[in-house]
Amino acid sequence: MARDERVTLLEVHQALPDEQFQSLKFLLEGQVPAGLLLPASRPELCRILLQRFPGNSLRVTAGILRQLGRLDLIQRFKLPLEEQTPEETPCEANGDTPKVRGDPTSGHHPGRIPAAPMNNRRLTEKDLMQVAQRLGKEWQEVGILHLGLERSRLEQIQEENPSNPVLWNFEMLREWQRRERHEATASHLQSCLEHARLDPGILDFLRSLQGN
């Protein structure tokens, strides 16, 4: 493995504040076992990524940084953008129902139910993480007043994820998602948060998921 790849990867990790470094590890859980990720320091995470993605660790990291909104780091370190994999199409990455090549559901076909419109799809964990990144310190107020969650549950979330406000926000949103089930859509969350005191960028982001 190239020395430059290892050095660049470590510099990228060191440029992340602790909260975003923890979020980066969280978003890697689908590709790396959580048991390896959670206790990993920055140098240890570099070693894990270099072993699991030889020659491709910077590309994988760039994909996670894009989810975290750190395009500045992608540009600063000239990271390659993550390539689309055969297992994940762009619509799957956004949480849409994928259209399989040659699948009759992609067109008008008798007896087939067309895919649900984008604004009716359930929010993905990636969507929730992007909202969580933007939520401020009044997250409990949002959870109780606007999402209808119990204060005791929010306090439990805080105890389970010490010193990581982004994960507090994320777990709160996941709790709401579990309760709402199929109704946990971008349009529904937008209506819940419409009158909350929060970053207007959150509502803009949710509107963008609806294709507005």
From TrEMBL:
SMART domains tied to this protein:
DEATH, PYRIN
GO BP, sorted A to Z: regulation of apoptotic process; signal transduction
* Residue ranges of the region described as Disordered: 84-118
Q: Which residues form the Death domain?
A: 147-194
Q: Mind telling me which Pfam families this protein's record contains? A: Death, PYRIN
Xref: PROSITE patterns? DEATH_DOMAIN, DED
Q: Which residues form the DED domain?
A: 4-79
Q: Which domain of life is it from?
A: Eukaryota
Identify this protein by name. Answer: CRADD protein
Phylogenetic classification of the source organism: Eukaryota, Metazoa, Chordata, Craniata, Vertebrata
